[in-house]
Write a structure and sequence with these properties.
The structure is a single chain. With about 500 residues, this protein is of the alpha+beta class. The chain has five domains: about 80 residues, no CATH class; about 80 residues, Immunoglobulin-like (Sandwich), CATH 2.60.40.10; about 70 residues, Carboxypeptidase-like, regulatory domain (Immunoglobulin-like, Sandwich); about 80 residues, Immunoglobulins (Immunoglobulin-like), CATH 2.60.40.10; about 70 residues, Sandwich (Immunoglobulin-like). It has a four-stranded antiparallel beta sheet, with no helix packed on it. A four-stranded antiparallel beta sheet has the order 12-11-14-16, with no helix packed on it. A four-stranded antiparallel beta sheet has the order 21-20-23-24, with no helix packed on it. The chain starts with a helix and ends with a helix. The relative contact order is 0.06.
Length: about 500
């Protein structure tokens, strides 16, 4: 019985030893899982690794500590001010530009920085950036101020700059007032009566002062001498001489003749042998012989003829002026500018600055002048026939503030009848009553046109800062005298007279 029990005990001990060895082997394998290919069979031994506390405590502590610490720290480091710091150049300073004029523009080395407000503009700069060389301040109507910067500001330093702007010298103060002229008249022999525009001024020698620049009709008259008539031009601030050399009049009335001149339209200028005599109608006393006559009126063709003057006779010269058709225009502008008339190209302004166009039909035409870098000039121009019409096309640069304008004035023009077209220097300025202003001081040509009336043309003066009134009465255009049809009364009366004479003759012959 003991032997049986001993064998059983031995068998149990062997089993326990085998189990212990197996347990030892499995624990060694679990502790060295990564070695070799023994990892795959170990998952079968669940009872050994079955404890629930080991896996949860290892994996949750590893995963949260690795992923959150890498991703959040990478993004903030790229968008923090690490890249901004170098742009400040290691600090920041200021250049304080002080100026006596607000709204002045400040430039650093030609680059716009801002506008003065409250007498100062403070500009932040980098002390280690590109140094500022020159500071400039400018404003329209003032001379530009520019000086080099003394030094660049250090970090947190303010460098003050003081700019003083002075008004540009080209102002209206430099424009001298319009000076008037005078005429000095001295006849030979002295003592002649001196007339200006038909009004007696006194006796030679005489000075007629305070005359606006323009053309004046002068006449010297002395008993026993042939009157002298001339047109005298008066310039600004000048004294024009008038020296009539009078000739003794021939014995009247035997050795002279007269010519009475009329014109249609009226008021044509009359020239005899090249000498101005006055405006038609007028009567001219001339020596016997052939004399050349020329009548001139703006807008009409000249009328020329020869008249043979006979002593002790009076001849009538009734002239009808034909309306001129074509005129010439001289356009002054920038050389190279393109010129259009009524949308048709006329060429370019030559190097002389004046483009002359001839054979232009009289009347209104629209002119346009264009040049690169300048605003287009456009206006309606009235082309007077038989004369040269000067036109000045003043071009203004694009985007440039114009310089202060010179002193100007204007006109207050009324006419009878009203509604007449107004042209100043051939440029259309509206209809009467009209008050054109902004006209440069000096002389200007005034032209009024109204259908059925004679054109009015005169030279008037504009005074700076003044409005010159002009009251103009237009004259009706002359109408041709209709030729009446031959009356039947004269032929009928003649027939009756002839019939009566024939009857009387027959009766006499019968009685005889």
């Amino acid at each position: 019985m003991n032997t049986g029990r001993d064998s059983v005990k031995k068998s149990l001990i062997i089993v326990l030893v085998v189990l212990a060895l197996c347990s030892f082997g499995f624990g060694h394998v679990a502790a060295n899982e990564p070695i070799g290919d023994i990892t795959s069979p170990t998952y079968v031994l669940e009872p050994v690794t079955e404890t629930p506390t080991a896996p949860p405590t290892t994996e949750p502590t590893i995963i949260p500590t690795t992923t959150p610490t890498t991703e959040p720290t990478s993004e903030p480091t790229t968008e923090i001010t690490i890249t901004i710091e170098p742009t400040m150049g290691g600090g920041k300073g200021w250049i304080d530009v002080n100026c006596n004029e607000d709204r002045a523009t400040v430039y650093f080395d030609g680059k716009l920085q801002g506008v003065i407000a409250g007498g100062i503009l403070s500009v932040a700069v980098s002390p280690t950036g590109t140094p500022v060389q020159t500071v400039s301040v400018s404003k329209a109507g003032y001379t530009t101020w520019s000086e080099p910067l003394s030094h660049m500001p250090a970090d947190k330093e303010h460098v003050a700059v003081y700019a003083t702007l002075n008004p540009q010298p080209t102002t209206t103060i430099t424009i001298p007032p319009v000076q008037k002229g005078a005429i000095y008249a001295q006849s030979n022999p002295a003592g002649a009566a001196i007339y200006m525009n038909g009004i007696l001024q006194g006796y030679s020698p005489i000075t007629i002062p305070n005359l606006p620049p323009g053309t004046y009709s002068m006449k010297a008259s002395l008993s026993g001498y042939t009157p002298d008539t001339q047109l005298i031009d008066v310039s600004t601030g000048q004294t024009a001489p008038y020296y009539p050399n009078l000739q003794q009049s021939p014995p009247a009335p035997r050795s002279t003749g007269t010519v009475s001149v009329t014109s249609a339209p009226n008021a044509a200028l009359v020239y005899v042998d090249g000498n101005y005599q006055g405006k038609a109608p007028l009567t001219i006393t001339l020596y016997p012989g052939s004399h050349s006559f020329r009548l001139n009126l703006p807008g009409y063709n000249d009328y020329t003829t020869s008249v043979y003057v006979t002593a002790n006779t009076n001849q009538k010269l009734n002239t009808v002026l034909n309306t001129a058709i074509f005129g010439t225009v001289a356009i002054s502008s920038i050389p190279g500018s393109s010129v259009w008339m009524d949308s048709n190209s006329q060429g370019r302004i030559p190097s002389s600055g004046i483009l002359t166009l001839s054979g232009i039909t009289s009347g209104n035409h629209i002119f346009r002048v264009a040049a690169s870098g300048y605003n287009d000039w456009m206006n309606t121009v009235y082309i007077q026939p038989n004369v040269v019409n000067p036109v000045t096309a003043a071009m203004t640069p694009v985007g440039v503030i114009p310089t202060p304008a010179t002193a100007t004035g204007g006109f207050n023009i009324v006419s009878t009848p009203s509604g007449a077209e107004v042209y100043i220097d051939n440029l259309f300025r509206g209809y009467t009553p009209s008050t054109p202003d902004g006209i440069a001081a000096g002389q200007h040509q005034i032209l009024l046109k109204y259908t059925g009336y004679v054109d009015y043309s005169a030279t008037e003066t504009v005074n700076p800062g003044q409005i010159t009134p002009l009251a103009i009465s237009l004259q009706p255009a002359p109408t041709p005298t209709p030729v009446s049809a031959p009356s039947l009364a004269i032929p009928v009366t003649g027939l009756l007279v002839i019939l009566g004479i024939s009857i009387s003759l027959r009766r006499r012959s019968y009685h005889d």
